[in-house]
């Protein structure tokens, strides 16, 4: 990426997340003589005035790696400030391409397992990209009150077979022992793939170290969440202020709602997609669209900057 993050002003940059057949992700090393020489980053470069994000990324990856993009889709877009300047990163997943990546500008390349990206010396701005890469793009929130435990688990199993998901167990009505049993069965269903199991902090659950993630309601945004030793933390948000608090508190992701009108919260005015875009652009944490979402809304949500969609159990069918 031939961009100096210490240059003045905001630099718009197109970035590509490229995977090989095994799912490993490509990074390249900044060459000697450049700022942050020796650190690793995802390939890409500055967007020229006459270019769209897709056009800029296609040009940069051709120039840098010698590959030609066939299909791409947005992953995350955010700003990052360095000491003397700032960049706005427009990150896309490269779904298919032609050619074999090579360092055409002399830059070393490396294929890295997704789970190992946080173990290499990446540029600071790339941390948000790593979260977006590792987090699934579908979030499923359980609701056993609607379907019952057995049917909820059956439906969940069907979906997890088809796609990786962030599964949030939100079962405030379940007593401790049934909840522990339910979480155990959810973990068993999810363990075969890259799905993550998350427990809502409102639940009657006392072993948060036994799950991948803890999800907090917006009412706890100003509280200290440092007690959790889960790998991931998420927060429900409904406004720009709450998103700001979530990011300031170190949340790895946020659910932003309601995007559309919902039967579960009829008094709340929906944000709509334009407002979702405005609010999501203020933070670097991946943001899921929640509220009135169905699987058919996925492309729309991603096209508006969402990490993906979040759905209550009623919409899983």
Description:
It is a single chain. With 317 residues, the protein is of the alpha/beta class. The protein has two domains: 10-130, Nucleoside Triphosphate Pyrophosphohydrolase; 138-315, Alpha-Beta Barrel (TIM Barrel). Helices cover 25% and strands 27% of the residues. The chain has eight helices and 15 strands. The chain has an eight-stranded parallel beta barrel with strand order 8-9-10-11-12-13-14-15. The protein has a four-stranded mixed beta sheet with strand order 4-1-6-5, with helices on both faces. A three-stranded antiparallel beta sheet has the order 3-2-7, with no helix packed on it.
Short recap of the structure:
With 317 residues, the chain is an alpha/beta fold. It has helices at residues 53-65, 126-134, 144-147, 149-162, 176-190, 240-248, 272-280, 298-303; strands at residues 10-18, 25-29, 40-41, 44-46, 68-81, 86-98, 109-112, 138-141, 166-169, 196-200, 213-216, 232-237, 253-256, 287-290, 308-312.
Helix percentage: 10-25%
**Which CATH class of the largest domain applies here?**
Alpha Beta
N to C succession of SSEs: EEEEHEEEHEHHEHEEEHEHEHE
Summarize model confidence as the mean pLDDT.
Answer: 89
End-to-end span in angstroms? 43 Å
Could you tell me the radius of gyration in angstroms?
20 Å
Q: Which term fits the overall shape?
A: globular
What is the third-level CATH name, the topology of the largest domain? Answer: TIM Barrel
Q: Report the β-strand fraction as a percent range.
A: 25-35%
Q: Low-confidence stretches at least 5 residues in length (pLDDT < 50)? A: 1-8
Biggest beta sheet summary: 8 strands, parallel, barrel
């Amino acid at each position: 990426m031939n961009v100096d993050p210490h240059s003045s002003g905001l630099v718009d940059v197109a970035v590509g997340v490229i995977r090989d057949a095994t799912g490993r992700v490509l990074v390249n090393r900044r060459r000697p003589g450049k700022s942050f020489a020796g650190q690793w980053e995802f390939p890409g470069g500055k967007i020229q005035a006459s270019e769209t994000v897709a056009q800029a990324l296609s040009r940069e990856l051709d120039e840098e790696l010698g590959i030609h993009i066939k299909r791409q889709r947005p992953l995350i877009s955010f700003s990052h400030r360095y000491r003397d300047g700032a960049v706005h990163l427009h990150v896309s997943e490269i779904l298919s391409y032609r050619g074999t990546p090579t360092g055409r500008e002399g830059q070393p390349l490396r294929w890295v397992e997704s789970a190992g990206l946080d173990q290499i010396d990446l540029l600071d701005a790339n941390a948000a990209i790593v979260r977006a890469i590792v987090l699934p793009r579908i979030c499923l929130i359980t609701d056993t009150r609607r379907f019952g435990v057995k049917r909820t688990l059956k439906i969940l199993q069907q979906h997890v077979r088809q796609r990786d998901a962030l599964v949030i167990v939100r079962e405030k009505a379940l007593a401790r022992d049934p909840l522990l049993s339910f979480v155990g069965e959810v973990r068993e269903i999810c363990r075969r793939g890259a799905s993550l199991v998350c427990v809502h902090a409102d639940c009657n659950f006392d072993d948060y170290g036994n799950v991948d993630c803890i999800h907090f309601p917006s009412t706890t945004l100003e509280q200290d969440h440092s007690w959790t030793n889960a790998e991931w933390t998420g927060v429900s948000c409904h406004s720009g202020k709450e998103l700001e608090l979530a990011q300031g508190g170190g949340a790895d992701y946020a659910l932003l709602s309601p995007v559309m009108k919902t039967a579960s919260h009829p008094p709340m005015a929906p944000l709509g997609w334009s407002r979702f875009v405005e609010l999501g652009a203020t933070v670097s944490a991946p943001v899921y669209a929640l509220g009135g979402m169905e699987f058919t809304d996925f492309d729309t949500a991603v096209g508006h900057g969402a990490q993906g969609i979040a759905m209550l159990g009623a919409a899983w069918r």
